[in-house]
Sequence to fold (413 residues):
Amino acid sequence: MASTTPSTQPDVRAAQLAAIAAAAGTPCYVYDARAIRGAYATLDRAFDGYPHAIHYALKANSTLAVVRLLHSLGSNADANSLGEVDVAMRCGFRPDQVVFTGVGKSAAEIDRAVSLGLLAINVESPGELDRIDQRAIAQGVKTRVALRVNPDIDAKSHPHISTGLKSNKFGVPIGEALALFREMSSRRGLQPVGAHVHIGSQITTLDPLQKAAQAVVALAQSLRHDNIHLQHLDMGGGLGISYDGAPVVDPAEYVRALVAATKSSGLKVAIEPGRVLVGPAGVLLTKVVDVKQFPGAKRFVVVDAGMTELMRPALYNAYHRIEPLARRDAAESIVDIVGPICESTDAYARDRAFPQVEVDDLLVVADVGAYGAAMGHTYLRRPLPPEVMIDGDQWRIIRRRQTLDELLALETE
Ligand code: LLP
Fold:
């Protein structure tokens, strides 16, 4: 019989979460280190020896202990701001393990990115190409760059998180890539090392990801005729997870498809997963603070977490499974699960069949390890919640709850 780890036995797991809620208070994020290790290993193994690099997209969750865990597994890092570049380095990444992507890099960001000697700066436009070159020349260095191409492929994801259409602001049209690579290789301050594509996030079908990969491989092949030889093809992130139980792309199958598309070129494949690595590893613990019934109309379960802690439902109408930590023996009714924020969009679930709950019951919001805490904010002067890392039967607080004094520390009266 397969052995079951303590954290996967439902009652042991529930007891652990209850203990965490009692010690750290609610709302509180909880991540499972084992789940992160497992997700990383699944991707890594699926390359089956083909040259590759996994660049963890810090934007999904850049809490230090999470980033450090990914570093310990052998990951590289994808940073989207200088803050994320610095967090990556604090967590042990060398500059040559960090890629810096981002539309609209400021002069200060370019200057520092060049001075660090990163693995690559992903160039987003002809103007940016020029600015990076100038700063590299001024610093007397040749800086490694990759070109982010926009392949005009529909990722068929939520429009707010699609990035690969020509109506999106990201990258350069793939038709201009050849000319821009020629330009880059003629510049004194630039060393083109890669091509980069990222068409969106929470992508649940293989086809667009495969097409984007094929487009980048074809580009690399035509660059060879121009004697421009890249070192890596960065296929971006974007792999979706199943928030609601609907089928998604199997991560190993995704990797195998990328390898199949790239093999003929022999080039190293880089991927930038965020969500698939940390999303399913996180839950948000929240407590019921009120239950109210409008006669003949809605029933509301009001919880102590809201759009300040978890933006995704308000921002993308995103679905997250929610369950009471301890189920009462009662029939389900249709409820809205709402937060305490004074915005009508502050709801985690609408018209959802839900077991009966009472004030002070704990609820578990699932699959919030990615873009949960990382997108949290302090609207209504709500201090940021704590974060906890579970590892087997051990757990520790990896970010304590912010105090109001800390929240106000930057201000003067
Ligand atoms: N690489 C680049 C250049 C990206 O822009 C992103 C995500 C990733 C990698 C990682 O994508 P992932 O593997 O996590 O899909 N806040 C939204 C998601 C925004 C994604 C932004 N870019 C959400 O909560 O769904």
